[in-house]
């Protein structure tokens, strides 16, 4: 469950648990399946999530533990990064570390809570779509991502974030409309 009353630490913990379940559900032989992210396989989606979280931690001088390569063991690679990130978030000094971000002064926990938790939800769906597993995003997470997207405004279309919106029928469900807005063909 996600809501604005949940701490960044607990929000990450909850969304990382969902992402972990998606990673663990990937069937044998599906890691190299193409994902909705152009040019990326399911394995590369997980590598992106790991790499971007690691890079964010390094930006403030935090080194997260190294696991096996995503190429060799994507499940353990993700679990290792997740556990390291959670430990960093649970450390008040790291969580409260302030820096100048793209949108102004912020702190580590707030940045993870917004941008990197967003990635856990959206790339979790990408992974599920690529591997033929359950694509359902919990309703509370759909609402939360909608709020993040609204807060980002036109920045959501910056290079490397989301592609152009895809048209869907007015009758599409809320999850489908959100994913289409984020450039995913559903």
Automatic annotation (TrEMBL):
Under InterPro entries, the record lists:
CHP03086, DinB/YfiT-like, Maleyloyr_isom, MDMPI_metal-binding
Q: Name one GO molecular function term.
A: metal ion binding
Protein name in UniProt = TIGR03086 family protein
Q: Which organism is it from?
A: Rhodococcus triatomae
What Pfam families would the database entry show? MDMPI_N
Q: What is the lineage of its organism?
A: Bacteria, Bacillati, Actinomycetota, Actinomycetes, Mycobacteriales
Domain Mycothiol-dependent maleylpyruvate isomerase metal-binding residue range list: 13-58
Classification via NCBIfam families? maleylpyruvate isomerase family mycothiol-dependent enzyme (TIGR03083), TIGR03086 family metal-binding protein (TIGR03086)
